[in-house]
């Protein structure tokens, strides 16, 4: 459990909060590059860390992220005209470039210099690896972009999606690092075919070992697989909101959970095959909202299965045991339980057990980092040379620490994706 004060610290991410200040020191995945497909295309609304923003791609292919409201009389720039190197408010024509400078003010006399005094809040953006990233922290503290495997592979090897989840970001992170729920929430009896799946089904109380690292946490969950053999699932948690999922096959998965505001987050799902293009069948599954992804109500980022329709739970499917939860889709299974805990769960009331070890450590790391920043410490996990890591899923002889037995598997080496880069 957490005290009410620590729960507030962990979950509140507005500009003047301790956690909000910490999160603003990292690059933020803001939107998919494809959402702004070409220069001068329509702008896109993005809410991040409680701030309403508008993203646009200007005539020179430069991406900008501006305050949603025009500084003149506060009309939304969502309706703006994206033309000739800037976004023009449709109310009185004031126009802003990607840096937030007012470059045209046709409602004032030509001799007026007022436009030189007006700016709009803007955040720097980078368009890298299929994602538009932004940095909302102090200018002189801007770190390098993170090195994450899914951003290093060619477009044909990856599929990313984002959707709104209706709960605080940290509740979703807790689901992402909680390896023990796989044996329950995501259990599907038809799937228990491989040794790994059998271990997941048969040993439902994994032993956790959590190591702190320079980038975040290595979270090992150990299950009995056979006489003297154990199955390790090692999830990587990278500060401040990324997880890498232990793989079941060549296509790998990861997530990010970015606060939209304190009661909603952007749930990012990343699927990628480091060495080969994704197969058509895989892509079709992902696009249809299966696997880690979810189908969205057209024109929105809200999922078709949502809390208003009880995630379309199928009680017969649940009773049959074919899907433990009766809810279709891994992502929707996670959303159902995480959202059902309330938009900001009251952690002072929970009862944690040994299988919650990773969650306890992750909370501590985040709270410690937020308080440390306030005391002048550098936030952890910003050194990109330490970020070349992978999740792992491996059978090991009993008694071998995962840090040793899975060492090679957890390192991201150039040959893991080099063939892809050279394509
Ligand atoms: S409100 Fe935007 S130009 Fe007037
Ligand atoms: Fe899950």
TrEMBL record:
Assigned keywords, A-Z: 2Fe-2S, Dioxygenase, Iron, Iron-sulfur, Metal-binding, Oxidoreductase
Key word Metal-binding present: yes
InterPro entries in UniProt: Cholesterol_7-desaturase, LigXa_C, Rieske_2Fe-2S, Rieske_2Fe-2S_sf
GO function terms (MF aspect): 2 iron, 2 sulfur cluster binding; dioxygenase activity; metal ion binding; monooxygenase activity; oxidoreductase activity, acting on paired donors, with incorporation or reduction of molecular oxygen
SUPFAM superfamilies, alphabetized: Bet v1-like, ISP domain
Domain Rieske: from-to ranges: 27-134
Domain of life: Bacteria
Gene3D superfamilies: Naphthalene 1,2-dioxygenase Alpha Subunit, Chain A, domain 1, Rieske [2Fe-2S] iron-sulphur domain
UniProt keyword annotation of Oxidoreductase present: yes
PANTHER family recorded: BLR4922 PROTEIN, IRON-SULFUR DOMAIN CONTAINING PROTEIN
Record-given protein name: Aromatic ring-hydroxylating dioxygenase subunit alpha
Organism: Brevibacillus nitrificans
């Amino acid at each position: 459990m957490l005290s009410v004060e620590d729960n507030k610290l962990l979950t509140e991410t507005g500009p003047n909060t301790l956690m909000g200040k910490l999160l603003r020191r990292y690059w933020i995945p803001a939107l998919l590059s494809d959402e702004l497909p070409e220069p001068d295309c329509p702008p896109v609304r993005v809410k991040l860390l409680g701030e309403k923003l508008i993203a646009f791609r200007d005539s020179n292919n430069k991406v900008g992220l501006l305050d949603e409201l025009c500084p003149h009389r506060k009309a939304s720039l969502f309706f703006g005209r994206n033309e000739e190197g800037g976004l023009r408010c449709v109310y009185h024509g004031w126009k802003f470039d990607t840096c937030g400078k007012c470059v045209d003010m046709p409602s004032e006399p030509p001799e007026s210099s007022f436009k030189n005094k007006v700016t709009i809040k803007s955040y720097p953006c980078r368009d890298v690896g299929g994602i538009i990233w932004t940095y909302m922290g102090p200018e002189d503290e801007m770190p390098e972009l993170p090195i994450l495997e899914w951003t290093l592979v060619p477009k044909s090897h990856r599929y990313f999606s984002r959707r709104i989840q209706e709960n605080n970001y940290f509740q979703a992170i807790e689901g992402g690092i909680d390896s023990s729920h796989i044996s329950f929430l995501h259990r599907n009896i038809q799937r228990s075919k491989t040794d790994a799946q059998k271990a997941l089904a048969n040993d439902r109380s994994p032993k956790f070992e959590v190591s702190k690292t320079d980038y975040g946490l290595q979270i090992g969950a150990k299950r009995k697989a056979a006489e003297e053999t154990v199955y390790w699932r090692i999830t990587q948690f990278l500060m401040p909101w990324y997880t890498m999922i232990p793989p079941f096959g060549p296509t790998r998965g990861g997530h990010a959970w970015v606060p939209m505001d304190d009661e909603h987050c952007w749930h990012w799902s990343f699927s990628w095959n480091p060495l080969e293009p994704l197969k058509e069948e895989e892509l079709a599954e992902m696009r249809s909202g299966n696997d880690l992804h979810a189908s969205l109500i057209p024109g929105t980022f809200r999922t078709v299965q949502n809390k208003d329709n009880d995630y379309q739970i199928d009680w017969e499917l649940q009773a049959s045991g074919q899907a433990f939860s009766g809810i279709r889709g891994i992502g929707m299974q996670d959303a159902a339980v995480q959202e059902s805990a309330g938009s900001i769960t009251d952690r002072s009331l929970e009862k944690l057990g040994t299988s919650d070890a990773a969650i306890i450590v992750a909370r501590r790391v985040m709270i410690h980092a937020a308080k440390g920043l306030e005391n002048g410490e550098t936030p952890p996990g910003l050194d990109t040379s330490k970020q070349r890591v992978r999740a792992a899923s491996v059978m090991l002889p009993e008694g071998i620490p995962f840090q040793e037995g899975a060492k090679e598997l957890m390192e991201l080496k150039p040959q893991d994706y080099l063939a892809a880069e050279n394509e």
